[in-house]
Design brief:
There is one protein chain. By secondary structure, the chain is α/β, with parallel strands linked by helices. It has two domains: 41-298, Type I PLP-dependent aspartate aminotransferase-like (Major domain) (Aspartate Aminotransferase, domain 2); 301-431, Aspartate Aminotransferase, domain 1, CATH 3.90.1150. The chain is built from 14 helices and 15 strands. Strand 4 (154-160), helix 7 (169-179) and strand 5 form a beta-alpha-beta unit. Helix 4 crosses helix 8.
Length: 433
């Protein structure tokens, strides 16, 4: 009887989706949006009917799909991409890593033109961010300055692929190997991008991804961590799960077959392994409800990526007519980006960015800045007495802060939407002549 009711519920979910699904008007161009159909809704309803809700079978299936897609050994879901970055840094600061651990006062190379939660975990573990400038056009780190930034305190490089554009991974990997540095690859904006045929998120010692609705796939809130090293995975999982030493999946007991047979720390012999803590941890798990959505999304990731690339290529071709007005985005050599957005930097000093953005928004074209602009000029850096170092100048970072913005190309958009962007920009520029 219950299966018959469930079947009827699923039929109603199908009918509901067909009734409420919407298309985006061609004169409205959001910067991002979640793309889903009845499959996500049915998975979500099924997971809710099961009544488990916390990390469970859907999460295991989601992690499996993530591992198989990227071709990595370990995937660990989290409640956000920001939490993934937090866990990644705390993993590399774990005492279990001995002399390779990142200790307070040691340095991590990054860029100032980025998102706060790529940088904040560096500060959170007591390390010192070392900021470099970026290139205009690619908006990625100036790799020729990295060696200049390395000191006897440098322990790692942590950078994001800017708006889906893969970094020069050959050069960064080579520098990390030469100087025995950790490489943390923030892949939150680049899931499904490739470098020399390999997916981004597979080059770092640890990589992270976000499943926020704006990103390449979504679980509403959510994220994941990837690695190929079993020790790093064990530490990361412990940190995500309260810091406990036990590795039992949620809802399971005695996986180690010696639950009451351990002697750890100064606890009495036989203390319950489920309540033994070996890290200063958190609770940053994903729920099964979120993972159920992600499981359906993973079946669509290749199509999503193809549509992003198609929209970018069309808009890039059409935008050539404005090359005197804007610096147009360009991929790194050997990169095949699954673009998160279409970046534009205003060349003409007579064009006020705010005025242009307001015009575009009024005409249905949403816009965003490149996140924090120059992060060291944000209030929490200015007022927070934070320890950091800048190597060279941040000239391009300041240009980005003042003259750069981006437009959406996500899979919910098509050529007519891109045409509306072009028409709107053309009308704005014409009105100024």
């Amino acid at each position: 009887m219950s299966e018959e009711i469930k079947k009827r519920i699923m039929e109603l979910v199908d009918a509901y989706y067909q009734k409420v699904k919407k298309t985006i008007p061609e004169d409205k161009v959001p910067v991002s949006g979640k793309i889903f159909d009845e499959k996500e809704l049915k998975n979500l309803v099924e997971a809710s009917l099961e009544g488990w809700w916390t990390e469970g079978r859907w999460n295991r299936e989601f992690e499996k799909k993530l591992r198989e897609f990227l071709g990595v050994k370990f995937a660990l879901t989290t409640n956000s991409g920001s939490s993934s970055n937090l866990i990644a840094l705390h993993t590399l600061a774990s005492p279990k890593l001995g002399e390779r651990r990142i200790k307070p006062g040691e340095e991590i190379i990054t860029v100032a033109a980025g998102f706060p939660t790529t940088i904040n975990p560096i500060i959170n573990i007591g390390a010192v961010p070392v900021f470099l400038d970026v290139e205009l056009g690619t908006y990625n780190i100036k790799t020729d300055r990295i060696k200049e930034a390395i000191s006897d305190k440098t322990k790692a490089i942590m950078i994001a692929h800017t708006l889906g554009n893969p970094l020069n991974l050959d050069k960064i990997k080579r520098i990390c190997e030469e100087h025995n540095l950790w490489f943390i690859e923030d892949n939150c904006d680049a899931f499904s991008s490739r470098y020399k045929g390999h997916y981004t998120g597979t080059f770092g010692h640890i990589s992270t991804v976000s499943f926020y609705p704006a990103h390449h796939i979504t679980t509403a809130e959510g994220g994941a961590i990837f690695m190929n090293d079993a020790q790093l995975f064990k530490i990361a999982r412990s940190l995500r799960d309260w810091g406990r030493d036990c590795w039992c999946p949620t809802g399971h007991d005695n996986t180690c077959k010696k639950r009451f047979g351990w002697k750890l720390g100064n606890l009495p012999e036989g203390y319950d392994h489920k309540y033994t803590y070996s890290e200063i941890g958190f609770n940053l798990k994903m729920t099964d409800l979120q993972a159920a959505i992600g499981t359906a999304q993973m079946d669509k990731i290749e199509g999503f990526a193809a549509k992003r690339k198609e929209n970018f290529a069309y808009l890039r071709e059409q935008m050539e007519q404005f090359a005197d007005t804007f610096i147009l985005p360009q991929a790194e050599e050997d990169a095949d980006p699954s673009w998160f957005g279409f970046l534009l930097t205003i060349k003409d000093p007579k064009i006020d960015r705010t005025h242009l953005m307001e015009y575009l928004i009024k005409n249905g074209v949403s816009t965003r800045l490149l996140f924090g602009g120059n992060i060291i000029k944000q209030p929490y850096f200015v007022d927070g007495h934070l320890d950091y170092r800048v190597v060279g100048d941040l000239t391009n970072t300041d240009i980005i802060m003042n003259r750069t913005f981006w437009i959406g190309i996500y899979p919910g958009l098509s050529k007519p939407h891109m045409d509306h962007v072009i028409t709107s920009i053309r009308k704005y520029l014409s009105s100024r002549q």
